[in-house]
Amino acid sequence: MSDPAQTPPSDTPVPAQTPHPDDTGPLTYSRRRVQFGLTVTLVGFFIFLVGASPGIFGFDRSPVIGFVQIAVFLVGLALMCLGGYTSLMALWRNRAPSISVDFGVRLVSTGYVIAVFAGMADVFGFGSHPLPGVPFFGGWQARGVIFGEMIIALGFLLLIPYPPKKHS
């Protein structure tokens, strides 16, 4: 047994260790989920580029952007959204997501729906070149897809886990 004179009484406060400012500690996120999400995002970006600008890869066969190209770049945009969501949600691993994360997820989803409906407006019958004519990607559709992408970007900004504020 130890000598009672050498042990501090139980009511004596134990000094807290202050962490070094450069010490980040153990990882607070899943590295594999982040890597998987970034890989899906990059694959989606490649598919998006194939659809939006096939001339880069030598696939350009038409002077206008038609239905197949629109569908391909929307699939690429969907993969980018899924990969970004996976990566950013992995950063919240040991913390409860905030309400801004819920808004961000909804904005990413809403932005994608806006992009799909703007891109496929002719196919859905409310564009400037409705079927049975040849649908192609016009200026208003481009503006709608860009607006949808801006909404997606705003949603991703809300998904970022900022460090908690320190009260002084």
Automatic annotation (TrEMBL):
Transmembrane stretches in the record are: 36-59, 65-91, 103-124, 144-162
Its lineage opens with: Bacteria, Bacillati, Chloroflexota, Anaerolineae, Anaerolineales
Q: Indicate what this protein is called per its UniProt record.
A: Uncharacterized protein
Q: Which UniProt keywords apply?
A: Membrane, Transmembrane, Transmembrane helix
* The species this protein was found in: Levilinea saccharolytica
Q: Where is the composition biased (Pro residues)?
A: 1-18
For region Disordered, the annotated ranges are 1-25
